[in-house]
Design brief:
alpha+beta, two-stranded antiparallel ribbon, 5 strands, elongated
Length: 161
Amino acid sequence: MHKLLFGVLMIVVWWMLHGVQMDEELAMGTLHEGKRAIDRAAHAAAQQVDRDKLEWGVLSISSAAARTTAMDYLQANLRLGTDLEPQPGSWLREGLEVRVFQVINEDVTFPYTYRNPEYGYEVTLDRPGVVLIAHMKYPRIFGILAPVEWDLKGTAELVYT
């Protein structure tokens, strides 16, 4: 009898460990998709050229257009609403929080090193660009485990030929 009870308990433990491993894989998939969305949003934002300045030969990014484009990309790629909360069908269960959105334009000397000690982020830009840092949370399947949280960072430069 004790061998049967031991066998049943081992099956339960094995299934629980299997569930925790699946939860970890889902968290890593969420991190991967979130990072891709942040990178795409930063790249799209960095391509929003200020046409008025371009007429004068100055490469610059339109801050308003860049922010709008970045938010549109985040909403589309992560299936979020305008308030950055998940819509039905989204694989996220919690909203995204944009913590840093900064456009670095021609008012600095290039190459320019952007530093943000709060998030431990440093990047060197050779031309105008965008820095985007967003906070994403993945609530665990098992309630006893704390949610996994990330500060996802993305940077892109204005591409020109």
